[in-house]
Amino acid sequence: MMRRFLLILCLLVPALSLLGETTRFWRQEKYDEFTRGRAEGVALRSDGELLLAPRFLERADAGLEFLWTVARDAAGNIYVGGGSPARVVRIDPQGKASTFFESKDLEVHALAFDKSGNLFVATSPDGNVYRITPTGQSQEFFNPDRKYIWDIAFDTAGNLFLATGDKGEVFRVEPNGTGKVFFASGETHVRVLARDATGNWLAGTEPNGRIIRINPAGEGFVVYETSRRELTALLHDAQGNLFAAALGQKVPPLGIPGVPMIPPTATTVVTPQGATTQITPQQVTPVPTQRLPLPTVGGSSIYRITPDGYAEEWWSSDKELVYSLALDKDGTLLAGTGNEGNLLAIYSPLLFANLVKSSAGQLTALLRAPDGSILINSANPGKLYTLGPQLATEGTFTSDVLDAKLFSSWGRIRWQSRTNPAVGSVQLYTRTGNTSDPEKNWSPWSTAYSNPDGEPITSPPARFLQWRAVLKAVDSRTPSLGGVSAAYLRRNVAPVVEKIIVQAPSVRVRGIPVGAQPQELVQLELPQPSPRPNQVGPRISGPQQAAQRMEPPPQGVTEKGARSVLWSATDENEDDLEFTLYYRGEGESRWKLLKEKLREKFYTWDAETLADGAYYLKAVATDAPSNPADLALSGENTSDRFEIDNTPPRIDDLMAQARSRTVEVRFTARDSFSPIKKAEYSLNASSWKQIFPTTGTTDAPLESYLIRFTDLEPGEHTVVVRVYDQFENAGLAKVTFTVK
Predict the structure, then answer these.
(1) Are residues 481 and 410 in the same domain?
(2) In which domain, by residue range, is 605 found?
(3) Can you give the CATH number for the domain in which 563 is found?
(4) pLDDT tens across 455-474, in order?
(5) Do 314 and 176 belong to one domain?
(6) Measured distance CA(330)–CA(350) in Å, rounded
(7) Strand pairing class (160-165; 119-124)
(8) Into how many domains does the chain fold?
(9) Around Cβ 426, how many Cβ atoms within 10 Å?
């Protein structure tokens, strides 16, 4: 299996040769690509289409960090509730905001109007339900003696229903203020309420994420148990379908010993007529003394349940957290999300659009007004916005920044649309610069490009490019943009030879052999190329983008007399490179050719072709294989000093002097270039034994040795001595003597 992999790898590398620097195209036409840009008055659809969005305006700043609920009275006044502290702010039709109600509680979680125009306000934790007359007179209406009141809503008889925690109960409160438990869910919290056309209540729970239908007699039936932990919104459409938003994972939270745990701290109320919407984020934390941050992980889902009870997942995200739901005037489902403040329009399980990316962290409550506009509450900070009902007359979309990596000249910019927008309704602009931040010393925006079939980019050559699209409503057709392509040619730059490493003597370097028998490998000293960041960048197309070059590391094997060199080289244009090696002796002035037309980044030669001495190697890289001759460039680098020594040490004055049965053998070892490395002897063909010079250390080109033998048997004996230099060259000599 490994041999087959190596064969494929070796065949693949030549096939990945690059064609040189030619025109590239920066294309943006997918949803994920457009999400890296910035939209203002432009909606981004999940199929990659940019369109004019409904008009989005800030209506009022409530002066609170969080807003959880919104309601509207018959006179057109808007009421928003949040905290902290618990406060209701009224915004009149002229946009003037004033405090309508305030209590010592932490937050207002839910609002609801009765038929007489009285506003009912639910506060938490340890809160109450207050009744406030149209003139602003408030009084406590009902205290359920529960930790949380998440949601409130009226039935047609004027009874007020409360969704509570931390016992997961629904209370029914009569108009006179007397109330009792209407339904016990068995869950920790009932988070949200909605009422269907037949008078049944739908309750969303936590922590099992259940949707429970409760009939007028207070009997419950689980319609659906979601895969999420907590329901945050329930909403019926005109066909009787129920949409349910849920977030979080069903994973038990890590508790703090001895501290009771609580759930999220806000709620959603949506009546069948779309009158109000309140939202609560999921949160399980110790009992707070102040508002804690909204959840940031876990993802969310929206489910659709048909009137006959069939449930399906309508939309899902592992990043967006849905806090609120509403229907626009055309019946399109809207979802307010966090934690990037996006408002989504969900058309089907296969298609949605990001209508708004607000400056707030979360869009916590949605309410459709009689004129078809959508009132939007936010948190972080707590503001009131309006969406629609008209489209914005003009919107802009600014792309992310293309980093061409090199100084580039620009070609043509062109775009397309899935619709047939009016002439002049889509215009593009470009700007360029040589810093990654387009707001710092870039060129100004170009004049408008109006021809979708392509116009030359007039921005000056540079490394970075950005485009901006302006969509204008010039007739009844909605302008749209489905994709943009910008051509560019990067400047050819010289390749760089980064590091040259000459290997130890007697090592041959080779590529991965195909079908070769296993052979003991030698550890090579490999040059480390400069780090290249592995970043996710824009989608680039062009002849050079076929594949990224794969270069398996070379192997080293022992071979007497071989000398090898390895080097690393890079080319910013990703050109195919060719190498030439030169050598020069120490003290010499001219470089001589060693080998040319190399494609690999290594080379082995016969060391005996060079005389003993010190040398330098120079590697020259050229990108000529990928460029015309007049545009080809080269780069070079020089190795560190290295030495060649092909001559073995010489053994001189080898003699044996016998004294009775004791014999002394003396000799000197001399090398013409490098220090002696080691010496050893063999007596009468026995195994080799190492000896040390008379000085004790072996570190000079001339060393003297003395070997003393005792108690030798009478007769003739032979001693062979062998001496190595630093390059493993070995010299041998022998002496024969007789012991009497």
Answers:
(1) yes
(2) 2-20+494-644
(3) 2.60.40.10
(4) 999 999 999 999 999 999 87
(5) yes
(6) 18
(7) unpaired
(8) 4
(9) 23
